[in-house]
Design goal:
This protein has two helices and no strands. The chain has one domain. It has 78 residues and is mainly α.
């Protein structure tokens, strides 16, 4: 019974504003951490997209050069 009374007294004496403030700070920290992780992931995806576009442009340039070379060869034989 003494233990229960001590626990009850401790809960009554607790500064609940400080507990709430600590809770808000932890939640805000987790939220900011998640937002930073999402922002970083988006940045990585945008860089990957840019690399894909550059690769497509390079492939198209190579194909165009190949087509032009083939065109020159065909006109020489005609």
């Amino acid at each position: 019974m003494m233990l229960l009374r001590r626990i009850t007294q401790h809960i009554k004496n607790q500064n609940w504003f400080a507990v709430f403030l600590d809770f808000v700070i932890v939640v805000a920290g987790v939220f900011i951490g998640i937002q930073v992780a999402n922002w970083n992931e988006l940045k990585k995806e945008q860089q990957l997209e840019k690399q894909y576009i550059q690769n497509i442009i390079s492939d198209l340039d190579d194909q165009l050069a190949s087509i032009n070379d083939q065109k020159v060869i065909e006109t020489q034989f005609l």
